[in-house]
Amino acid sequence: MTTEPSRRIQRLRRRALRSAQTAAVASPSNAPDAPDAPDSTTAPRVSFRDAPPLTTPVFEVGSLSVFYGDHEAVRDVNMTIGDRQITAMIGPSGCGKSTMIRCFNRMNDLIPTARVVGKIRYHGENLYGKEVDPIEVRRRIGMVFQKPNPFPKSIYDNIAYGPRVGSFKGNLDDLVEETLTRAALWDEVKDKLKTSALALSGGQQQRLCIARTIAVKPEVILMDEPCSALDPIATAKIEDLMEHLAQEFTIVVVTHNMQQAARVSHRTAFFTSDVDVKGERHGRLVEYDETERIFSNPSDQRTEDYISGRFG
Ligand SMILES: Nc1ncnc2c1ncn2[C@@H]1O[C@H](COP(=O)(O)OP(=O)(O)OP(=O)(O)O)[C@@H](O)[C@H]1O
């Protein structure tokens, strides 16, 4: 006889699987930026992205905790991020995704109350070592934010700014064209390079910000909810761009949109927060695995509950 809990678990597993399959095939034009995938039994099966093995780690995170003052916002994270893979971080609001992604390029250094404890190795070297220059870290590990934030300058100067500051010696016109082409924006802006970047649409501005990031030849691109301010068509363009850029760059993306995580990423980290005996809330990494496994057969009940829309 089937017991009640096992029936419930089977039901949840079926829901989660259907949800993930639907999520991954849904085009952004019909997938709103929300963590609720349609529960359709007729969703076609999908192929998730194959996750290459983690043989070449870019980041190795060990026992990492982040404090704001006395508050331990993220507790004891261990994970390895592979070279030229897209790693998605998902989880309910306040679980520490942004705090975590900011650790990868030492952006938390800019928050006076923030303190990072534990290890992050970047290509085997301590990212937080005394000899490491955080400015150089941020050049090699670029970041794209939730809200497009182009400089109030021309399109051309937005791209040229970083290379100029870095004393770029080559042909700047060529670099601007090449960078805008790689960011899938050249055809749309090539005739108005001297006009203000602020006159572009939100989606174009975000692609410009991605172009500005890659103009200084980073190795890693961190994206903190890069599509949350964009419409579905602009979102689709950014997702296409991410897929393309992953051939060259390691990408870590925070997203509230599970469909997006399922569509674009090779691996997914699910965070949540729990409350300790003193009533304090701490973000934790619950499960980190190949995206297909997270969405179709997660090993932790909390992951299953989240991706099947039961909380968050
Ligand atoms: N600058 C800060 N100073 C103090 N506390 C902060 C700061 N930034 C974040 N926190 C706290 O750290 C915890 C994690 O926040 P964080 O923004 O990293 O979560 P998140 O998962 O990215 O949330 P969301 O999905 O809503 O953006 C929260 O309790 C938040 O209040």
UniProtKB/TrEMBL annotation:
Pfam families: ABC_tran (PF00005). Gene3D superfamilies: P-loop containing nucleotide triphosphate hydrolases (3.40.50.300). It comes from the Bacteria. GO terms for biological process: phosphate ion transmembrane transport. The keyword ATP-binding applies. PROSITE patterns: ABC_TRANSPORTER_1 (PS00211), ABC_TRANSPORTER_2 (PS50893). Transmembrane segments: none annotated. Keywords: ATP-binding, Nucleotide-binding, Translocase, Transport. Residues 18-44 have a biased composition (Low complexity). InterPro entries: AAA+_ATPase, ABC_transporter-like_ATP-bd, ABC_transporter-like_CS, P-loop_NTPase, PstB-like. GO terms for molecular function: ATP binding; ATP hydrolysis activity; phosphate transmembrane transporter activity. Residues 1-52 are annotated as: Disordered. Residues 8-17 have a biased composition (Basic residues). SMART domains: AAA. The keyword Metal-binding does not apply. One of its GO terms (cellular component) is membrane. Residues 59-298 form the ABC transporter domain. This is Phosphate ABC transporter ATP-binding protein. The gene is pstB.
